[in-house]
UniProtKB/TrEMBL annotation:
Quaternary assembly: Heterohexamer composed of two FlhC and four FlhD subunits. Each FlhC binds a FlhD dimer, forming a heterotrimer, and a hexamer assembles by dimerization of two heterotrimers.
Role, per record: Functions in complex with FlhD as a master transcriptional regulator that regulates transcription of several flagellar and non-flagellar operons by binding to their promoter region. Activates expression of class 2 flagellar genes, including fliA, which is a flagellum-specific sigma factor that turns on the class 3 genes. Also regulates genes whose products function in a variety of physiological pathways.
GO MF assignments: DNA binding; zinc ion binding
Keyword presence, Manganese: no
Subcellular localization(s) per the UniProt record: Cytoplasm
Annotated family: Belongs to the FlhC family.
Listed name of the protein: Flagellar transcriptional regulator FlhC
One GO process term, biological-process aspect: positive regulation of DNA-templated transcription
CC terms in the record's Gene Ontology section: cytoplasm
Length: 195
């Protein structure tokens, strides 16, 4: 019979709290933390006030190739690689620190975080499984997320060659509404019924 260290268990709980705070899903918590599923669920409910989300984890590499997702994914993964290679972090601490730096950087620029923790962790697994690679842009020299085994020669990133509609917000639909002989023009609110 093995005896659990109290300090070891406290470290596992602290790690679970940190990961839950970052948005880790229960499936990842079970793999990363040496606590029972029941304890993780109770901890999640205590911290978030709700049960952990159910459902499948992301499984497609295509999400990372869209314009905005590729920019954010590339920024995160370059930070993650720096943490592994230059800061000599092991994988889980590098993942946590890289995700924190990514969210801080996006927030400091007034942007919206596009890459949630689950997608960041899944992307790291895709790189480990040789499903994704970093390709160097021939124009700016930046390193960007790309499908593995894609031709790296002449690669142009999404910043140097953005799609034609990139960064353009959709305009709200405008409709005329007739009420008592008056015509009003304004945004359409779909409330499920006729006006």
């Amino acid at each position: 019979m093995t005896r659990k260290s109290v300090l070891g268990e406290v470290r596992e709980v602290q790690l679970a709290v940190e990961l839950i705070g970052l948005g880790a899903r229960l499936q990842f918590l079970e793999a990363a933390v040496a606590l029972s599923r029941e304890r993780l669920i109770r901890l999640y409910k205590e911290l978030k006030g709700v049960s952990p989300p159910k459902g499948l984890l992301p499984f497609s590499t295509d999400w990372y190739m869209t314009w905005l997702a590729n920019i954010h994914s590339s920024m995160f993964y370059n930070i993650y690689r720096f943490m592994l290679d230059e800061a000599d972090e092991s994988e889980l601490p590098a993942l946590i620190k890289a995700y924190r730096l990514y969210t801080e950087q996006v927030g400091s620029q007034g942007g919206e975080v596009v890459l949630d923790f689950t997608r960041a962790e899944t992307m790291v697994r895709f790189f480990d499984s040789d499903m994704l690679q970093l390709s160097t842009c021939c124009r700016c020299g930046g390193h960007f997320v790309a499908h593995a085994h894609d031709n790296k020669n002449g690669y142009v990133c999404v910043l140097c060659r953005p799609p034609s509609r990139a960064g353009k917000a959709r305009k709200p639909k405008v409709a005329e509404v007739r009420r008592g002989g008056l015509i009003s023009v304004g945004p359409v609110l779909d409330i499920g019924g006729a006006v």
